[in-house]
Predict the structure.
Amino acid sequence: MVARSALLGLALSALAVNAVAASSIPVVNAGAEAPAAGSATQPVVNTVTTTPVQPVQTQGGEAALLLNQIDTLQREIMELRGVVEEQTNAIARIQNENRDRYLDLDRRISQLVAGGAVASLPQTQPTADTAAQPAGNNVPAQAQTGAQVNGDTLYQDSFQLIRERRFDEALAGLQKYLTEYPEGTFVDNAQYWLGEVHLAQGKLKEAEADFSTLISKYPFSDKLADATYKLGQVYDRLGDRAKAKEYLQRAVKDFPNSSAARLADVYLSKLEG
């Protein structure tokens, strides 16, 4: 009797433990029917496990913001490139305009010289003071500063001296320019004006050498037509009529649309008349 009671107690204890264990486990039931009457009174927990979406939304927003920033930076870079290109073109245009102005002035004076304006000027005679000075003193004051003055300025100063009829100083400046800036912007022009100055001074052999050097050394120079015409003049004044005609005819043939060709044609007419 005692044994049976003990066994019954153990069985009841086991059932109680199982009931407690079962009640602690949540039941996932999304579509089950309501429990029948008389069933266990433990509540049924209907839960659905889902992945959190808030972090995903945050990452997507950051990515979109980053893409917008990149797009904005790309547009700014394109705008800056456009500004740089415009400024580069503006600088190049200004440089070309300055060069064109100098060349135009150079061309006008050349035409005046071709018409005899400079050739008719009185030749400068060295005074006792200037004859005693060393050649370096004839260099323009600005040219004497050496490295402080760039090549273009030296050429422009020398060119201005020609306009002022200070031929000896102009020669010194032009020769200095050709020596110190052999790759300068105006080397062919400087070589040409050496010949013009020597021709104006009546130094025909020097003028012949200057113009010949330009033709052989700078075959693509803008002064090539003028130098060819001037050589015709020089040879005529040297008494070599055959060479004079040769270069005058070359000026007419090789540069038919130039002012030098028209002047050469007139000069030829005088020689042949």
